[in-house]
């Protein structure tokens, strides 16, 4: 953990701001704006890029991936710029919670992989790049979105250690556990051998 230099008010401000930024459901916004239907009634009903892909629009899925990652990165970078590293780490966690548990959708949000990667890129870009590569490789090998996300999250902790970002290690572990928690049903299907590949009906 970094040194806590900011006041409680400042940390609370950035926690709330980052949560609100993270809670923007870009997948739903884009699918509605592009007349692709109600995302909550398509596929798994998830608001992330994998489910957006099931609308048949690769463009919408790519934009969702970029924007969901971008909102996490923006929250961290703004908090760091105006408050410091302690606020940046608080913002990272809050943005993830906003995406996974958005107040606008009854706290039923996405699984957090894109936002997780965006947060990592902003917090420690070498760790973020390495985690993105782990995500891409795992997905390319398995053709399974959830395995890509889980592999990336698991690997990020080791990348933080080996690349010298120990001050963010505790946060990284918490974010990794959050990603695994959000994928708990996927993990059950992976163990049972029933987890669908990319483009199938559930994620």
From TrEMBL:
A GO molecular function held by the record: acyltransferase activity
Membrane topology field: Multi-pass membrane protein
Keywords: Acyltransferase, Cell membrane, Lipid biosynthesis, Lipid metabolism, Membrane, Phospholipid biosynthesis, Phospholipid metabolism, Transferase, Transmembrane, Transmembrane helix
Reactions catalysed according to its record: an acyl phosphate + sn-glycerol 3-phosphate = a 1-acyl-sn-glycero-3-phosphate + phosphate
Pfam families found in the cross-reference section: G3P_acyltransf
Top-level EC class: transferase
Domain of life, per lineage: Bacteria
Functional pathway: Lipid metabolism; phospholipid metabolism
Keyword Lipid metabolism applies: yes
Enzyme Commission number(s) from the entry: 2.3.1.275
Signal peptide location: none
Main location: membrane
Keyword Cell membrane among record annotations: yes
Places the protein is found: Cell membrane
Annotated TM spans: 6-30, 88-107, 114-138, 158-181
Function comment: Catalyzes the transfer of an acyl group from acyl-phosphate (acyl-PO(4)) to glycerol-3-phosphate (G3P) to form lysophosphatidic acid (LPA). This enzyme utilizes acyl-phosphate as fatty acyl donor, but not acyl-CoA or acyl-ACP.
Quaternary data: Probably interacts with PlsX.
Similarity field: Belongs to the PlsY family.
Protein name per UniProt: Glycerol-3-phosphate acyltransferase
Organism: Sulfitobacter litoralis
Underlying gene: plsY
């Amino acid at each position: 953990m970094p040194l806590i230099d900011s006041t409680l008010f400042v940390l609370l401000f950035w926690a709330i701001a980052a949560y609100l930024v993270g809670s923007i459901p870009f997948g739903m916004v884009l699918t509605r704006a592009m007349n692709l239907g109600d995302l909550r009634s398509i596929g798994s009903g998830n608001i992330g890029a994998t489910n957006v892909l099931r609308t048949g629009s690769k463009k919408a899925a790519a934009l969702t991936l970029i924007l969901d990652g971008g909102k996490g990165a923006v929250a961290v970078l703004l908090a760091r710029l105006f408050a410091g590293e302690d606020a940046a780490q608080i913002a990272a966690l809050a943005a993830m919670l906003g995406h996974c548990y958005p107040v606008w959708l009854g706290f039923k949000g996405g699984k957090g992989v894109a936002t997780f990667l965006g947060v990592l890129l902003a917090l420690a870009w070498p760790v973020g790049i390495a985690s993105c590569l782990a995500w891409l490789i795992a997905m390319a090998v398995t053709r399974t979105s959830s395995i890509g996300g889980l592999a990336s999250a698991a690997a990020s902790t080791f990348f933080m250690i080996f690349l010298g970002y120990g001050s963010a290690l505790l946060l990284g572990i918490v974010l990794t556990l959050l990603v695994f928690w959000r994928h708990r049903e996927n993990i059950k299907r992976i163990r049972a051998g029933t987890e669908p590949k990319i483009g199938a009906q559930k994620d």
